[in-house]
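Entry, Tuesday afternoon. Goal for today is a structural model of the target with zinc ion bound, before we commit to ordering more compound. Inputs were pasted exactly as handed over by J.K., no edits. I checked the ligand SMILES twice against the vendor sheet because last time a stereocentre got dropped in transcription.
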Amino acid sequence: MAIRVQFWGAARTVTGSSHHLECAGRNILLDCGLFQGRRREAREINMNFALPPEEVSAIVLSHAHIDHSGNLPGFVREGYRGPIYATPATIDLCDPMLKDSAHVQESEVEFIRKRARRKLSIGRDGAIDQPVDPLYSTEDAAATIGLFRPMQLHERQALNGSTATEGFAVTPYGAGHMLGSTCVLMEGTENGKTTRVLFSGDVGRASLPIIKDPESAPAADYLIMESTYGNRLHQPIGPVKNKLAALIKRTVQRGGHIVMPAFAVGRSQQVVMMLHELIREKKIPELPVYLDSPLATSVTQVFEKHTEEWDAELAALAQQTTPFAWKHMIYTQTVQESKALNQMHVPFIVISASGMCEAGRVLHHLRNSISDPRNLILLTGYQAENTLGRRLERREPEVRIFGEWMRLRAEVDSIGELSGHADQKELLDWMEPVTKTLKKVFLVHGEPEAQQELKAEIEKRYRLPVEIPARGDQYVLE
Ligand SMILES: [Zn+2]
């Protein structure tokens, strides 16, 4: 016997990534992500960890996205004080991201409390949303940052509590999914026998702006792989810049402005860099560009700092100019600056979060823009079911913003080509070098349909056994 694995999060779903590995009495967690979904269900899941914090000797974090890192402060609140291993870029990204996540939860609780008080004051009974404590506070997020320990690409290190002959060692490889993202090779040694488990984290794609391409996967005995787009093929990335230029030019010619809802981390920076390139190449006019998201602004500074993560295109741009700063690039900070954009009467571009238009400053910009056919709403990523972003993508004739029904007259388009997740073909190609030594594949981080289709493809192409574990399922990896 060598390693025991229990799947705890992102099992038959795409959120709340977390898996428990045990070897020679050492317990570690791969990721500790926040489950995002309906409030009550999410709370229940996020408050239940695979095991008590005092029994966990180390956590290995694949990358900074909240569905992988966002429940770390919750575990710290429960009492976890051990190390969290991550790349230097991931550590720097987690600082603003976890604090922002805590702030979002504190605000949500404040909203629920206010609503409960209002219901009480007008004499209605029951129906008070419970409970009223945030999952974690900004103090918990700050305490989490102090537990991080850097891991360097391709460098093998024994984890806390393990020795050279017993327990776990980790070696990270670049995943090409976001700044700092990795897949990690976990080696568990017990009674002189070593078992290798490769955890894919989220697998990225070649040619994404800013970040390097995914690295070739190392040999392993077992593979735990994501399957987000296990049943889809993406549009090629190549033409996306020209498409962006054409959309902007058309909007400017008719005197409209452009609202780009974008995820604060990754997508916003990719869009800013592409706009700078297009302006320098004179493919679009020099109109003002606003990044209206304090989190995106903090994260851009992390992108500027971690030059080791940049691809050749960004490094070349940086030789000639400051990639994320130019005369007409404005990073707004205050709410007043954000609101002032509503009074602008010349064409401009505003990039703002959230990417699926569910919350945040982008809602104000949409309210101010969607009724005018001269304007363009340019979606930049995946839009989940039941989000305002999906309704805009579908061009529903009327949508509700801040409780008010509004006619959708603006043009809506999308540059979904920038997806950070490998599609079916890219996942199959990525795992190919590992298949020679693999005994079994476990699919995680995907909806059941995507997982079933990918499982069939892996079985057909590589003749390997594939499992699709549910939350709580355990396996012995020998
Ligand atoms: Zn991710």
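The chain has 14 helices and 22 strands.
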